[in-house]
Amino acid sequence: MDYVGAIIGVLGTILGGVLSYAAFHRNSKKDSEEEGKSSGTMLTEIGYIKGGIDRIERKQDTQDARYISMAERMSAVESSAKTGVSFSSAGSIPPRSYHGLKKARHPIGLMTLLYFLYISAM
């Protein structure tokens, strides 16, 4: 009868080890799934941020091109104001802004000139 108690003890120990291994394996799967979900969510959010940055860069490139165009037009206005050339020969500058310059008869500030060019471009 002594052996029966020892055999039950050994079987209980082995069963306890098997059950603990099964629980450990199941929990490690859950941990892996949760880690994968959080990793995937983070990568998705990074993708959205990257897309937003790309859109901002495209808009900035468009604004840079618009600024360069305005600077070229302003340069044409300044040179024609110094030489007295009419805007009809300059081409892209509308006559509406030229009439405002002709009436002023004083040097126009950069911001005022940019404002006239911006309004005429609309």
Main attributes?
rod-shaped, 89% helix, mainly alpha, 122 residues
What does this protein look like?
It is a single chain. The chain has 4 helices and no strands. It is mainly α and 122 residues long. The termini are far apart.
Secondary-structure blueprint of this entry?
Layout: H1 2-83, H2 87-90, H3 95-104, H4 110-121
Helix pairs in contact: 1-4
- Give the CA-CA distance, first to last residue: 103 Å
Characterize the biggest β-sheet.
none
Oligomeric form:
single chain
- Helicity range: over 70%
Order of helices and strands: HHHH
Mean pLDDT: 77
The secondary structure category is mainly alpha
Overall spatial form: rod-shaped
Strand content: under 5%
- Number of distinct beta strands: 0
Low-confidence stretches: 97-105
Number of helical elements:
4
Gyration radius (Cα, Å) is 39 Å
Can you give me a brief rundown of this structure?
The protein has helices spanning 2-83, 87-90, 95-104, 110-121.
